[in-house]
Structure formats: C-alpha cells, structure tokens
C-alpha cells in the first residue's frame, strides 16, 4: 500500500532512518512507524501481546488487508476511535489504554520492568562497512559506516525481520527479552503459613500510616502497620495469608 516515506538523520555520525509502515498500520498495533516497537513500553509487539494476553489476528491476504485498513481509516475519520471490523473487537491501542487501569497485575509489572526508560542511541549507529570487513575501504575516518567486525552470523539477532516484528511472530529480540524475564529473581513466599507480614521499602516521610492503610486495604484487612522512617521502610501485617 503506497504511503509517504520520511527519511532523516537523527544526529551526527548516525545512519539515516525512515518510516517503515503507514500511520494506519502503526495505529492498529500502537507501534512506532520506524522501529516497530510499542509506543507505551518501547518493547517488541510479541513481548507486549504475551504479557497483556492480547490476541489480534490481522488479515494476511492482500484483499482482506485492504478492506481492513479502509474500515480502520473510516473509523478514525468519523469518530477518532478505532474498532476492528472483524467481530467488533477493540484493537491493540485501545486495549493497552484500558490495561493501564490494572497495572497492579504481574504481567503489567513485568512490562514496566522490561520497558526502556532512557533513549537507546545504539539503535542510531551506522551500519558496518562491508568494504572495511574485506579490507578494501580507503575512506578512513571519512567513511560514514562503522569500522567494526560483524557479529556472529549464527546469532539470532543478526537476522531480524520487520514483518515478524510487526505481527509478533518469531522475533529474535522478543525471544531475548522473554529469556531475560525467566532469569529474573522471583519473590517466593515463606513456607510458614502463619507469616502474614509484608515488607515495604522506599518509604519517605511524606507517607504516613493512613496512606499505607488506604492503599493496601484493597488487598485485604490490615491488623497492624509499623512505619520506620530512619530505615525508610514499613511492615504491614494482614489478617489472612492470602491478602499478604
């Protein structure tokens, strides 16, 4: 499908970047037009969809894809909102907005841990000079490409496909992040079922006992709250083990 392609250089000694997909496709998946990463968390589509349990089967045939995009464009023009033409299911962008109200679940917490909060400038580096790899580059410092050895060709990250990244299928970047999740330390509750006390760290003097009670009462009834400002922590004792 024809669309306007923008090309720019993000900075000195950086490679030129361009838009890879149209605005309609980007809004359908709530991703960036250039890097095809999620706009909310900055993560691959496959990681986001698995964490939030989002399942969006987009049409693959040319005719169905064109009809799908026409319906989405019409919905955006009429109401500014997106509704999928198949089955009336909400598209990914709106589903993510609704999921932000339930950030307390473990899957959303996992996304927040994996989300990149600082700019990733290595993504803007120029490509490796193929002439330098063969020992034939004569530009020296004036060469706009990197003079570095390429990565291992057997490395899955060396073979990335924008189509797989967009649809969230067999993305090597997503596989690397999911393996990182499995290696993360997990909090295991103690075996003694009589322990119902929860430790809270990073407690400042602006937070008082009432604030802690009001926030944690949603998980269960509290028996006692002990705040230690010198240690910047608090201990909450629930009445039941399940609430803790």
How would you describe this protein?
There is one protein chain. With 244 residues, the chain is of the alpha+beta class. It is built from 9 helices and 5 strands. The strands form 2 sheets. Strands 3-5-4 form a 3-stranded antiparallel β-sheet, with helices on one face. Strands 1-2 form a two-stranded antiparallel ribbon. A hairpin with an 8-residue loop joins β1 and β2 (17-18). It is extended and about 70 Å long. The chain starts with 6 loop residues before the first strand and ends in a 6-residue tail after the last strand.
Please give the radius of gyration in angstroms.
Answer: 24 Å
| Residues in helix, % | 25-40%
- Based on Cα principal axes, name the global outline: extended
Low-confidence stretches: 83-97, 99-104
Please work out how many helical segments DSSP would assign: 9
**Overall strand count:** 5
End-to-end distance = 53 Å
Main beta-sheet annotation: 3 strands, antiparallel
Succession of helices and strands: EEHHHHHHHHEHEE
Mean pLDDT: 79
Strand content: 5-15%
Strand order of the largest sheet: 3-5-4
How does the helix and strand content classify structurally? alpha+beta
Briefly characterize the structure.
By secondary structure, the chain is α+β, with helices and mostly antiparallel strands.
Characteristics of this structure?
244 residues, alpha+beta, three-stranded antiparallel beta sheet
Task: Detail the topology: elements first, then pairings.
Layout (H helix, E strand, L loop, with lengths): L6 E2 L8 E2 L4 H7 L15 H8 L9 H18 L12 H8 L6 H9 L15 H4 L28 H6 L4 H12 L13 E5 L7 H8 L5 E7 L4 E6 L6
Antiparallel strand pairs: 1-2, 3-5, 4-5
Helix pairs in contact: 2-5
